[in-house]
Amino acid sequence: MNDIEAKKFGMFVHWGIYAIPAMHEQYWQRWNIPREKYVKFADQFNPHDFNPSQWLDLAQEAGMEYICFTTKHHDGFCMWNTKYTDFNIMHTPYGKDVLGLLAEECHRRNFPLMLYYSIVDWHHPAYPNIGRHHEIMTEQSKHDMSEYIGYLKAQLTELCSNYGKIHGIWWDMNVPEHKDASIHELIKELQPEAIINNRGFADGDFSTPERDWNIEGADTGTEKHYKMVEACQSVGVNSWCYKKDEDYFSSQYLMQCIDRWLAKGARYLLNIGPDATGKIPLDMENILRNIGKWMRNVRIAFDGIPISKIFDDNSLGAVRNGNILYVHCPEGLSSSTLNLKPFSEKPKNVTLMNNGEKLDWTFEPIVYYRDTGEKYLRIRKIANDILTGPPVIKIEL
């Protein structure tokens, strides 16, 4: 088993020369920037404050257990020492292998590392940029996918050979829908334990629902079934990279999203975008620290077997681990009482995991069901108004 399969919560990092204009990771395309202007951002990129130890300190404080790093986004700029293009981090004023420094710190801490790689490439002359979604129009393109796949395989070999153990490859934007099983076979040959997502060149190991978009019915099983699901979201409302005037999701909203997915047995990848100096902005840090306060108390509640349709209230999640049932309330509670109809097992103890408080419970029928005598577990006096994060309740049976 890959170490990452047992992990639940990870840090996604979108970082590249697009941090200089600080507008969007797809700045080149969305603002229709001339090629000659965009590529000059590489001449300015000098993230002298980049400190991978501080990044991982923050990740661990947030309760994160692995990291996924963007080695190359759609602009084609490479954040490692690649010999197949000069459009890379070594040809900037910084001149150091960012990925190498991050990988070294990950291995020192035994912190799993996954690598993001965009199949779309606006810079490489062979990639067939013809103006489809997430592409630009360019006269420079040779429209030679076979040549581009050779380039991609050469870079993939570098990434899977030069940076120690890699726990996964996170493809993005196979716009040409090019199929080539040999690419995934190459990954497995070089990194036998690496898992691969479903956006690449063949069936992957896990699906990737993004933001609130349910890609391929990942949470319903209505389409292709995946053994693993990894939902992803960014702390920024408008972008995945550093944006100088960004709007941020609230910590509460993000914790609700995390709770909803993890209670289903999925992983969750939450994205941040360092600025052009390599620092993680304070707003992002504060969001992650708030999530960490909640995650430290409830993390164990995601280990076990997710159970569906156990309660009439479909907004609730449930995870069972031996004689313990963890009840997840990602939408929060509308009152100080939680009615778990039709659950009728008597508990030994009931604990609010957010703060460790022991809770009252009863099997007395509430007024609406007194005539029928229907009884089920009712948990009372929940301090809902003062909690950090959505309530998670531990029921010992």
Question: Can you describe what's shown?
Answer:
The protein has eight helices and 17 strands. It has 397 residues and is an alpha/beta fold. It has two domains: 3-302, TIM Barrel, CATH 3.20.20.80; 305-396, Sandwich (Immunoglobulin-like), CATH 2.60.40. Helix 3 packs across helix 8 (282-298), helix 5 (145-161) runs parallel beside helix 6 (181-190) and helix 7 packs across helix 8 (282-298). The model is unreliable at 215-223 (pLDDT under 50).
In short:
By secondary structure, the protein is α/β, with parallel strands linked by helices. It has two domains: 3-302, TIM Barrel (Alpha-Beta Barrel); 305-396, Immunoglobulin-like.
Topology (elements, then pairings):
Blueprint: E1 9-13, H1 27-30, H2 35-38, H3 52-61, E2 66-72, H4 98-109, E3 113-118, H5 145-161, E4 168-172, H6 181-190, E5 195-196, E6 206-207, E7 228-234, H7 251-262, E8 267-272, H8 282-298, E9 305-306, E10 317-321, E11 324-328, E12 338-339, E13 349-352, E14 357-358, E15 360-362, E16 378-380, E17 392-396
Parallel strand pairs: 1-2, 1-8, 2-3, 3-4, 4-5, 6-7, 7-8
Antiparallel strand pairs: 9-10, 10-11, 11-17, 12-16, 13-14, 13-17, 15-16
